[in-house]
Amino acid sequence: MQQQQRLNLVLELISERGNVSIADIGEQLGVSTATARRDLNMLAEQRLVTRTHGGASALGSGYELPLQYKIARQADAKLAIARAVEGLIEPGATVGMNGGTTVTEVARALGRSERMSSIAGEPGVTIVTNALNIAFESSVRENIKIVVTGGVPRRQSYELIGPLVAASLRDFSLDIAVLGVDGLTAELGATTLHEGEADASRHIASVARRVVVAADQTKIGRSTFARICPLDDIDVLVTDAPLPARVAAQFEKENVEVVIAPTGRATAAQ
Q1: Angle between the 22-29 and 3-17 helix axes, to the nearest 10 degrees?
Q2: What's the whole-number mean pLDDT along residues 60-89?
Q3: Domain 3-62: which topology?
Q4: Residue 194 pLDDT > 50, yes or no?
């Protein structure tokens, strides 16, 4: 296993548990005590974890992995969700996007899509985003026109936040908004870990005729710090596994269409 893969997994463990010991890491990853200690020291030097006696802990209760360490998480699910979302977008559409790994995969799927080929020099799709990584990657695609909002970048996620986001979007009208979230419940709707990102995502959704949430099953039934929008503001949820019956009934009551992206795993009929 390469070091970057190990660091990803160690950060996942700390994110999920709040703290881990060197022994935990050795058991989970099958590495030596010396390797586990070196990895924790490296993460502590990068100020991604707090080093403790015999292990490490998360920096706080609202601990958030930097974007570059999230890429490997739920990778198959995110790719499947991205393909399904791409299928919901019509050629020529104007698409709002916030940040995050799942939405980044949606942008990549649009860039690869034969349906979104440029016609007579016109772009196959226009992406309006506050995510600098999406803007950077998509800018080399001839079939995509990129519009970037104003704002101040957050290093954790590469997303632009602040009042300039709303000011940039004020005169826009989007066909569809594709939002990544950290949590989605019937009671609170779509949530994320940072209030600035929630505000930016809310503004993107407010100027779109249709709102699609792209979220793998680990986000469903979980609520996080900052609310993006209530459930009844969401038109479609694209996820990778059928919802529990009670949750599905709540989403149906709020007229949220649920699309299950095929991942190759066996899934029960909804």
Answers
A1: 120
A2: 74
A3: Arc Repressor Mutant, subunit A (1.10.10)
A4: yes
